[in-house]
Design brief:
Blueprint (H helix, E strand, L loop, with lengths): L3 H4 L2 H5 L4 H10 L5 E2 L11 H12 L12 H15 L9 E4 L1 H13 L5 E6 L6 H6 L3 E6 L9 H7 L4 E6 L12 H11 L5 E5 L24 E6 L12 E4 L2 H15 L4 H13 L3 H22 L12 E2 L10 H12 L1 E2 L1 E2 L11 E4 L4 H16 L11
Parallel strand pairs: 1-10, 3-4, 3-5, 5-6, 6-7
Antiparallel strand pairs: 2-8, 7-8, 9-12, 11-12
Helix pairs in contact: 4-11, 5-11, 6-10, 8-9, 12-14
Bound molecules: pyridoxal-5'-phosphate.
């Protein structure tokens, strides 16, 4: 019998199961559990998108596509960003269709990273990047944004750049904090990053879930175009998490190399899914704005309730997460989330799942029905009220 632990890749052995999974799995076993860990829209995929996939299947469009994805889809992607945001990527050479943004992140990072490289990430940040960085033998270097409203300070970021820095990963709107970047902050970041020989990987998958103003993309800055790799997809914008459709955009020579890694990984994205994606991009552009109306209502409700409980937070302006501080309870974020789940059957994600800079916070997803949110907030309020005196926050 093979001794598994001896035969496996050291780096793979060291990857931890994401904190989100642990709590989501536990709450799934509780009949009255409410799962606020979910990172996907609770709306169905739009009907016409579903119909496009059904038609594709009925017409036997069920084989492989070009490795880079259907040209027709790449043209839809290119047109979408040109018409919506004013920047152009050539569908023939600068756009790659991947199996979700996740595969795009994986193929991109495995194309650019080498052993010993450093990657700077403002944190707290989505937990999907670190394992890929580590598998490549590279090292994440986190910039703490918890004291700057979860927005990176350009000068502080520059201080972390060394001759080993290969890339900076940015994710705005942010998972887990819901922070977005102002034009001024982006100008400052671009001014710094354009001076350095580093890749900028900008994961803008939540771009359509931007609430207070228009999303600004790093692709709108010509001065960083040759160092920018844009990660995107339809999972969040069109409620298509299970369809596995993502996009990577960047300079042609770079996309050519990422394509090789991508094709040896997944050959191409699912073909019916690609036809569905064309429909989403060409004919369902208003869908995210419709969902946003609900997200904003839910966000405002959750924020209002959390404030009444004495919890503090930065108001999220994008994505569908609230990231309140639970420091006033004196509990660690893991203890808080575990106790809340055990006692009230409500699952949230401990902030330290998003690096140690997220310690002292929890992530609450409001991609959930209003009924569930009301019920969950009632339970959370009772939980906080029942905390021993020293642990309870002062009601504001
Ligand atoms: C910031 C971020 N990037 C990428 C992904 C993965 O997206 P996809 O479902 O397209 O692989 C997620 C999913 O939660 C995410 O939050």
């Amino acid at each position: 019998m093979i001794e598994l632990h001896k035969g496996l890749n050291e780096r793979a052995l060291e990857i931890a199961v994401p904190g989100i999974r642990v709590f989501a799995n536990k709450v799934a076993q509780l009949p009255d559990g409410i799962n606020l860990t979910i990172g996907e829209p609770d709306f169905p995929t739009p009907d016409r998108v579903k119909a496009a996939a059904v038609a594709a299947i009925q017409h036997n469009r069920t084989g492989y596509s070009h490795n880079a994805g259907l040209l027709e889809l790449r043209e839809s992607v290119s047109r979408f960003f040109l018409q919506k945001y004013g920047f152009l990527y050539d569908p023939k050479t600068e756009v790659l269709i991947t199996s979700g943004a996740s595969e795009g992140i994986d193929s991109t990072l495995r194309t650019i990273l080498e052993e010993g490289d450093e990657v700077i990430l403002p944190a707290p940040i989505y937990s999907g990047y670190e394992p890929v960085i580590r598998l490549a033998g590279a090292k994440p270097v986190y910039l703490d944004t918890s004291q700057t409203g979860f927005v990176p300070d350009a000068a502080a970021l520059e201080r972390l750049i060394t001759e080993r820095t290969k890339a900076v990963i940015l994710n705005y709107p942010s998972n887990p904090t819901g922070a977005t970047l102002s034009r001024e902050t982006m100008d400052d970041l671009v001014a710094v990053l354009s001076k350095h020989n580093v890749f900028i990987v900008s994961d803008e998958i939540y771009s359509e879930n931007t609430y207070e103003s228009r999303h600004i993309s790093f692709a709108e800055y010509p001065e960083i175009r040759d160092q920018l790799i844009l990660i995107h997809g339809l999972s969040k914008s069109h409620s298509m998490t299970g369809w596995r459709i993502g996009f990577v955009m960047g300079p042609a020579p770079l996309i050519g190399h990422i394509l090789k890694v991508h094709l040896s990984n997944s050959i191409c994205a699912s073909l019916p899914g690609q036809y569905a994606a064309i429909e989403a991009l060409d004919h369902c552009r208003d869908v995210p704005a419709e969902m946003n109306k609900d997200y904003i209502r839910r966000r405002d409700y959750v924020i209002g309730r959390l404030r009444q409980m004495g919890l503090r937070m930065t108001v999220p302006t994008g994505a569908f997460y609230v990231f309140p501080s639970i420091q006033s309870t004196g509990l660690s974020s893991f203890k808080f989330a575990t106790k809340l789940l055990d006692e009230k059957h409500v699952a949230v994600v401990p902030g330290d799942s998003f690096t140690e800079n997220g310690e002292g916070y929890v992530r609450i997803s409001y991609a959930n029905s209003m009924d569930n949110l009301v019920n969950a907030m009632d339970r959370l309020e009772a939980f906080i009220r029942e905390l021993p005196a020293g642990d309870a926050p002062a009601i504001l």
